Structure to design on (478 residues):
């Protein structure tokens, strides 16, 4: 089933966490999915389910890729819960392309609407009636009343909806937002707090006490999701995939992934894609490690380096080794927060903090978003990862901005922004030797060339390098 709402901020994420957690506490297998470009909400859904949350974004992926991912990860014995984004019918054009409603029709899944009933009663029935008639092909099968003020409030709203709309009210819950304090990008990342698991448990208990979970499960069981026989749909291009590893050597290339509370924004599909392409993965952290392990490539995702700036700046042994390896040609792919860490400095209110210094960039931080939403870029300069002329779909969400950067022949911008803000001057993708760092986040299923390229570069780097006894890298045949 899909859990959606009338708008962002209606409580559907907290409801989704509670439903998933409650079912998990009952011993059920729940497979979480997230619609929309999102890492933080997906992290909470994954924590509640005890397994990865996969992304089904119809801007980043075409229909074939969405169907393939859903079929691959959903299990017949479990309950698949998809959390929508924004309002049910919100999309990027007049026809609602990329909306949660379109995803529900593609997957054949019923919709449960989370209605924010604060300071409203009978009007909620009128609003719901509008949603039912706006697109009759969207199967709205139930509603959950959120932020109800008491039993009388609940009774009026419930009676109005069931009488005028004929849609069952699955339950009514009080406001629970205090369980999940927010930061500027939404809910606080789970990796940052020890109390995350208890917050999930607390919300799960509230949901269990206020929702008819058996009725909710019955609605999910009535869905008619797509099957492998229906894939791919008509008139959809065949999805590009990487099923054959780039290398079949006994010794796999080692790709490091910086993953900790500073850098935690990774789609699980991206991690899986690197393994499928033939890589061995090693996870590391400049917050806790002084030195880098033996690597053939490095992937640095997004996150909040600004909140860990002091610790990152003080770990000079790690950053110095990283810069040395980058100068020697280590393939590095970085997104957003990773881009910031590769820069020269981050300027915050209290001080200026040196970063790895791989790229000659000084970053500032704004109180408001400097880039937010979907992106479309065209590759228009040579780089180690993408061919010229390739178009890439992604997304960006950053409060940092470029305070200082001067493009040179050795360090250039290789993306032209067709949509979005990017790095500066309608461009993105800073390329230096075998480093490519960008504000644009990609999804490996929608951009399958990415994993292939990173593993291919790792293999090439391994054949060029050897490590001497004193720990220095030496380029061979360069």
């Amino acid at each position: 089933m899909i859990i959606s709402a009338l708008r962002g901020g209606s409580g559907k994420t907290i409801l989704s966490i509670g439903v998933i957690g409650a079912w998990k506490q009952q011993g059920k297998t729940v497979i979480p999915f997230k619609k929309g470009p999102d890492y933080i909400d997906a992290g909470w859904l994954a924590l509640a389910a005890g397994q990865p949350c996969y992304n089904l974004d119809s801007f980043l992926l075409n229909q074939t890729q969405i169907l393939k991912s859903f079929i691959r990860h959903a299990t017949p014995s479990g309950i698949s819960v998809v959390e929508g984004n924004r309002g049910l019918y919100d999309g990027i054009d007049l026809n609602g392309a990329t909306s949660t409603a379109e995803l529900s029709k593609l997957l054949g899944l019923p919709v449960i609407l989370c209605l924010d009933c604060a300071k409203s009663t009978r009007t909620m029935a009128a609003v719901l009636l509008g949603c039912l008639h706006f697109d009759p092909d969207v199967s709205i099968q139930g509603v959950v009343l959120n932020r109800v003020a008491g039993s009388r409030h609940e009774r009026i709203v419930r009676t109005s909806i069931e009488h005028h709309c004929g849609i069952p009210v699955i339950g009514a819950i009080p406001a629970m937002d205090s369980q999940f304090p927010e930061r500027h990008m939404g809910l606080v990342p789970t990796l940052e707090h020890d109390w995350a698991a208890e917050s999930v448990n607390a919300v799960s208990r509230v949901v269990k006490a206020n929702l008819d979970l058996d009725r909710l499960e019955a609605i999910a069981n009535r869905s008619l999701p797509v099957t492998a026989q229906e894939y791919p749909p008509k008139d959809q291009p065949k999805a590009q995939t990487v099923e054959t590893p780039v290398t079949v050597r006994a010794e796999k290339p080692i790709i490091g992934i910086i993953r900790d509370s500073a850098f935690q924004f990774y789609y699980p599909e991206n991690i899986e894609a690197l393994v499928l392409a033939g890589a061995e993965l090693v996870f590391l952290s400049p917050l806790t490690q002084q030195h880098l392990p033996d690597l053939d490539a490095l992937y640095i995702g997004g996150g909040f380096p600004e909140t860990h700036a002091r610790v990152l700046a003080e770990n000079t042994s790690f950053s110095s080794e990283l810069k040395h390896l980058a100068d020697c040609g280590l393939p590095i792919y970085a997104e957003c927060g990773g881009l910031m860490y590769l820069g020269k400095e981050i300027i915050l209110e209290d001080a200026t903090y040196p970063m790895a210094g791989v790229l000659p960039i000084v970053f500032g931080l704004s109180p408001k978003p400097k880039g937010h939403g979907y992106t479309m870029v065209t590759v228009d300069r040579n780089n180690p990862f993408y061919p010229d002329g390739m178009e890439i779909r992604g997304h960006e969400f950053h409060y940092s901005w470029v305070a200082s950067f001067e493009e040179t022949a050795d360090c250039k911008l290789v993306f032209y922004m067709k949509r979005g803000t990017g790095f500066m001057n309608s461009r993105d993708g800073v390329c230096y030797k075998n480093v490519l760092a960008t504000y644009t986040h990609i999804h490996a299923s929608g951009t399958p060339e990415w994993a292939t390229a990173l593993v291919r570069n790792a293999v090439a780097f391994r054949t060029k390098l050897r490590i001497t006894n004193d720990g220095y890298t030496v380029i061979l045949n360069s």
